[in-house]
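Input for the complex:
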Amino acid sequence: MKRHPLAGTAAQSAQSGRFQQLRRRKDRVAGRLITVGGVAVMGAMLLILVYLAGVVAPLFVGASTQTEGLGERPGWADSTRLLDLDERGDLGVRIDDRGTLTVFRVPGLDVLDQLDIGLDDNVSVSTVARDPSRPGLIAIGTEDGRVHLVAYDIERQPGAPGTPRPVSVTLDFPLDEVPRYFAPTAIDRLTLSDRDERLVVAAVAGRLLAVETGRRQVNFLTGDATFDMKLAQVELPFEPVGLVIDGNHRWVTVGDAAGRLHRFTLPGLAADQVLRVSEQPLTALAGLVGDVSLLAADASGVVTQAFPVRDDSGRQELRVIRRFESLGEPVSALLPERRRRGFVAVGEHGALGIYHSTAGQRVWQGRLPLDTSAALAFGPRAEQLLQLAEDGGVARLLIHNRHPEVTFATLWRKIWYENYPEPRHVWQSTAANVDFEPKFSLSPLVLGTLKATLYAMLFAVPVALLGATYTAVFMAPALRRKVKPAIELMAALPTVILGFLAGLWLAPFVERHLAGLLVMAALLPLGLLTFSYAWSQGPLRRGLKWTRGWEPVLLIPVIVSLMALALWLADPLQQWVVGGDLREWLSQEAGISYDQRNAIIVGIAMGISVIPIIYSIAEDALYAVPAHLSDGSLALGATRWQSLVRIVLPTASPGIFSGLMLGMGRAVGETMIVLMATGNTPIMDWNPLEGMRTLSANIAIEMPEASVASTHFRVLFLSALVLFVFTFVVNTAAELVRQRLRKRYASL
Amino acid sequence: MRASLSDIRAWFGKGTPWIWLQASAVSFSLVLLGGLLVLIAVRGLSHFWPAPLEEWVVRDGQGTQTVLVGQVHRSEWVDAGRLREAGVVVPADIDRVRRHLLKTGNRDLTGRDFTWVLDPDIQARTRPDSLLVLERSQWGVFFGRLAGIREDGVLQDLSGHPWASLTQRVRRAASLRERIATLENKDLASVNYRVNRLERDRQALIDAAAPDQLADALIDLEAERITLQAEFDGYAAELESLYVEINRDSLLMTTPGGEEVEAPMGVVLDAWRPNHMATAEKLGHYLGKLWSFLSDAPREANTEGGIFPALFGTVLMVVLMSLFVTPLGVIAAVYLREYATQGWLTQLIRISVNNLAGVPSIVYGVFGLGFFIYFIGGGIDRLLFSESLPTPTFGTGGLFWASLTLALLTLPVVIVSTEEGLSRIPRSVREGSLALGATRWETLWRTILPMATPGIMTGVILAVARAAGEVAPLMLVGVVKLAPALPLDGDFPFLHLERKFMHLGFHIYDVGFQSPNVEASRPLVYATALLLVAITLVLNLTAVAIRNRLRERYRSLEAQ
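Predicted:
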């Protein structure tokens, strides 16, 4: 900056120079801060997008694994009959052929405790099974055909911080300490299930199927529990492979070498159903958590899932549900997860596949850490697979498989869930029981959102657009100055109030006056047309001049009286047409179910919140159409109506479109109204007399309960992301259209 | 009126009917708006009016005769057939019957608040002056007659002025109750808060301090704890004596059925005789009830009492939010209007602003929950409040996160409105200032921003109105149905940003939809709704008024 000719002395000028410098620096700093602040707005939007996407992303990241060698235990190789992992996954349990239970640390393999179950000296253990639903309960089968039931409990003792805590193991015998005879020959295969006070132990010895069932009896005086066990036996006409007890204790299912499943009823062991699941011989059989679904693996490496489906006669018929991608070699073992509906399939030659049944997908495919396996144990949270090789080597596979249940198909397509008669779109994220199959289909929620939006738009669009046209084109300016802000004020009504009125006032009102509402819908336009014809043609036509531009004021009392008339007429009308109450007639005669809080209620309430948005933007666009265009057409002899339809509407159409888009965006994301004015049942149905659950209401209902970083939590974030992206597209489109419109007006 | 078909056809041909239909759409919208407002106002305001108490002698279908006392809640016509199906005995010769929902109160005795009564069953309707309403701190209201008053268990002589004696005792109890409330909510709560703080300090000390200093510091803390304990004991003793004092009197009441029950004064909040009141008296009562609705805390799971904590929480949240949103919004608008060269970047920012305005509010809630609470709040907890983990301090919903989330939500409102304000300032003003040698910043700070103040104000007011009515995101980031303490109190640091708070909108949702006794609490919900509507409408109208004034002002500026 040049110095002013009238500037003072050098000292003054030096001071002033410093001052100028300060001013300039201030200016620069302010400029930078403001720029940062401005760009930060865009940053905020990007942050929302990126953060939501970041939370959602792990849903679609596949599984990964890590191999870890743990050492050698040559003495274990031949003698191990069962390998198991404790609830926390840091303790291992091994049962050997002499009936000794060993507790060891994982991954250290140092033995912490050893207990003898107390078998006779000359008897050795042929097979051991653990109860899939009750940790610590095992059944031990012996070479002489007996079965021994043992429950072990590992208790961690308090120890010095930082060091591993010592453990103490106790044994308990739920039946009695004397082993029970099941068969004359060695027990080949064993399984058990203790649920809801009922115990089932099933064994296969040669071709003999032997099952003991019983109910827990509690002695009221001593509090001791005993089981009244009853044994049933049946000779199998086939070579048995695998054995699974149904979770509800209704059946026991055995596989055979011809690819069939044989189901027997409990407790009588009557042959119930034979189902062919494969052309190949079956090699392994297992139940998914809950033991409703059966998994059968065959010699070609294909795993098939089957579960009972209720048929027309009410019979629970076992049916093949889905097949999984082949493992590529015969499957030797199927290990189900204990909490989710996942499982691993282990091949004869060491191949390993991690699957998820609901998703129907193979999440990971690879090999076991060691080539041969004498025993395998699957971690309780499916976080590791412990392997003991035939040469005594021990290794484990650490598995990171956080969200196997979510795929594109489970989110959007029909999935056949357990206990459902056919594949369906279902949203049911939580339930009381532990072995519940979560159902994360976004389809019913998206459909609900679209349904609510549709009915709201059906109500709002005609009212808003007709009103906007009148206000912009025909209304007297003095009236417009009052009416436009009044209608825009509707947008300021908190939606929680609209929702509350819809749910607690409108819904019962419509329930009582459903017929009245229908009559109103018909009577309003008809009555209004009749009135206006009478007004403009009849003896009152002199009024026409001063009512021009003021018609809405005139029509308010007409509308109110027509509404009252409709309510008054409704009763005799419905008596006459359907001979009673319309709602009852609908449910009884027409078979249409009626929810008190239904789509009509939502349509009206949400329509009220959408009307002012569409109205305001469309009116702005229509009002901005240059007057000389319509004036020109009027001068050429067009009527007011013709000029509107041919000139004004087409010119303003992009603005109207953008208003519609914004209104739709608002309806899609609206939460409180749908939350309060519907029953929030996620159904796939367009029936206007039934409710729905929308994406946004679903978030509001379930987000507070979802545990952080769980699949449920991330799926809810996904639905928020869907909403975000949808409104983003709609808003950007509307904005671009509006900008084009602005340019067009500029050129006119 | 003889209208031939051709007349009608001509009329349609000119398009006139469509214009009338368009006009009716405007009227329809206005009817909707007006109807809504009238509905809320009537329902919300009528709740506090002392409705007359009626005494009915009812003989039902089985011939049993009962005496009911209550207020008619609503009446409706129903199909007699449907009632018969439901097992109600209705006289044989009628199709439709009128029935009344009578609010009978006395929930502790009858187990319910309301009874349906068929109109034909009513044998006699009277409005005796002696009927009394007791507002109680539990079990809702009581309807009946005063039979006597006991003081210290001794029946008092009420031959002179039973009513005067009653009101005087009610007033005495009210002042005692006020003292109890202060003790419980202020003094005891404060001691409690300090004890908790002390405990946290102790934990932090044990975690962090060197062992040699630890002992001394712990002794100091222990001394402090002992003084606090003494303070606590003092308050507790006073509280106990107050409770004895307030229950000195008790009321002997006769129920409509003729039984006699005793109500200790500790539960009686107010008593009045609606049938005996003159209009002026009723008006006074009405205003008093309106005031206590605004100033009292809720009772009985929010279904009775006032809404003060919700009102307070809403206002505080909104004030905090405007502190965040105003500078941000103004800076962004100034950048867009005054600093940025118009190009693709400003285009992108404008699209962002528009999108932020259109993103559903629940998405902001999800973002606030994930990013603010779990990510940032969890981080703050690990850094600064590790001693109280795993109990989260900032890692859970609270006032601070709620206002921050809503600030993000309302940012576009402030930006758009400020931009409009800026755009109305004539170029000449800026050019004049720059020509006089002012820097851009000086021009902005001394000239443009002061002139844009009405625009900024409009934006902030609209943002506040929006935030006051927003509920969905708040449900995820810190609103609760019942907050144990206000976020602002006398304990350092006075403003507790991490506390959960109550909100009018959520109160409506919670009481209207989650309450166990919807029918009884409904009038209260209408009143709350009316308050919320009034707040948002007043704010909006103010914003519109300011905007209009602004327009006028710059119109004259531009004209010069």
